[in-house]
Amino acid sequence: GEIQTAQLLREGTTDQIDSRVTALNDERNAILANLPALKEQARLSDIGREALLNYQSRLADVNSELGRLEGARPEVALRQFTEASGEMARALREDVTKITADRDKKIADIRADLAEKEVEAERTRSEAFNEARATAQDEREDQEAQHQENLRRIISRANATIANAVGNRDALAAFMAQKQRDEELEEEQKANAKRIKEIQKREGEALKVIEKRYSDQLRAAQTAAQRAISLEIQKAQAEITLRGQAYNAELQQLQAALFAQYGLQNQFWAATYNLAARTVASIAGIQTQSARTVQLANLYSQTPNVKKYACGGYPAVGQTVLVGG
């Protein structure tokens, strides 16, 4: 009996102790039920007296073992609670680690996709810029060729008129031809400058349109990425909250199963508080390890501020420590 009891105290569960107590009580009741007959036999014979002594010795052993088991049950319940709740806390930490790792991977994928879109947008912008500048340069070259042709035509026509006037010894006609030539050259220079300015204006407007299109495209991609990042953060926080709530419920169920019938609430709440505090601290450590990714997610102003939540951003788990209040 002592060996079995010691093993139960060291390795057993409350259910096993309860089963052992039930068996011992059944045996005790059977001994007590037989005592009157045994006492009568003891009065009549030596064999009866020996049998009575054996039963009384066994009854004493049973009573002693029952006392040890009943006295040790709180200790076993606490040990069982510590082991089971420790496994629950480990599972919770693993779940939180997986959730945050999945969240960080998804955020990294979103940012990688955004980076690709930014590179593609910049490539498109650069190509559009080059095309607009090339078009403007072609127009400037065409305009320069037309300008040179107009200059040659004006000079050629003026030279012919001047030569004819000189041949006719008409000094006035030659003078007027020179004056008209100079005026036409001046007008051509002004017209050329105006056309060049128009080309430059069209080029500038085209570049502005391209830049705006690029900025809008980039802003849309960044906004979509930020919304996706915020959604992943919110989803992860919701998963952690649900898992923390399930952890709290499991912890309460474990307490009810092990302690509620034995008036051990004080021991339970102390154990629960310590376990919850360690669990929350470990979860806060998990969040700290992934803080760099969350900081990347905070690049845009709409990213949720996890600092407003208790215990490292996991409110449901944080509430666990508010026990006995």
Draw up the topology in text:
Elements: H1 2-11, H2 14-44, H3 46-167, H4 171-258, H5 265-289, H6 291-297, H7 315-319
Helix pairs in contact: 1-3, 2-3, 3-4, 3-5
Mean pLDDT: 79
* CA-CA gap between termini: 43 Å
Structural class: mainly alpha
Shape: rod-shaped
Topology order in helix (H) and strand (E) letters: HHHHHHH
How large is the count of helical segments? 7
CA radius of gyration: 48 Å
User: Strand content of the residues, in percent?
Assistant: under 5%
- According to DSSP, the number of beta strands is 0
State the low-pLDDT regions, or none. Answer: 286-325
- Biggest sheet character: none
Instruction: Provide the helix percentage.
Output: over 70%
What would you note in describing this structure?
- This protein has 325 residues and is mainly α.
- 89% of the residues lie in helices and 0% in strands.
- It has helices at residues 2-11, 14-44, 46-167, 171-258, 265-289, 291-297, 315-319.
- Helix 1 (2-11) runs parallel beside helix 3 (46-167).
